[in-house]
Amino acid sequence: MTLSKKLTRWEESYDKGENNILYPQVEVVKFLNRYITKKLDYSGGARELIKGNKHNKIRCLDFACGVGIHSMLCEEFGLEAYGVDISSIAINKSKYYAKTRGFDELSDRFIILHPDKPKLPFEDDFFDLSIAESCLDSMHFEFAKDNYKEIRRVTKRFIYFSLIGFDSLSQEEFENNDEIVSKKHEYGTIQSYYNLNKIKLLLEDDFHKLVYLVKINNLSVLDNKGNMSCRFYGVIDFNS
Description:
Elements: H1 3-15, H2 26-36, E1 37-39, E2 46-48, E3 59-63, H3 69-76, E4 80-85, H4 88-100, H5 104-107, E5 110-112, E6 127-132, H6 141-154, E7 155-166, H7 171-175, E8 179-180, E9 190-191, H8 196-203, E10 210-218, E11 229-237
Parallel strand pairs: 3-4, 3-6, 4-5, 6-7
Antiparallel strand pairs: 1-2, 7-11, 8-9, 10-11
């Protein structure tokens, strides 16, 4: 798939509202509450678990932010969030949604990335943490590796990620399984499935910095084919 087609497919998907995710993923909420800012009560009481930068702000990168739901979640946790995505439609929706929810400053921190250049427009260790929710598995594996290295470069402490897996695939299929989605949802985009060995290849030496990695399986009892899908959720701590 050419880069122009890749971007076009994502623009079409966001234009149709297929990826208008308006509720945060529960694993992202758990990550923030467990490692970044512990909420203590319903009145806004919280305890920061990490220290912010010299401006007393904990900065967070929401990589491939889509319509910005996790960027807004980070703001609710008291963080200074930045969202990046290759889709201008997604970024425009993020800006709009942020303003409608009162996050005016956040709306100015959504940035459109070039689709074929993984270079992020931030200096080394600019962020205290980065979130890569359901995105590194939506690109060719080699490109995912390049993007991960950039996320690593700009992140000082924590990286949270999630990756889709599929238990019925053989090892050979995992190693050569970048496919173009043929279903209506996200039609024409890339889907890459992961297992433990492929995660090791993605993270390389950083695999040993993992402090959390779980695999959650999903099996629909209405699916008479018995297909099992799964997703990996991981947290890397560079201070571990």
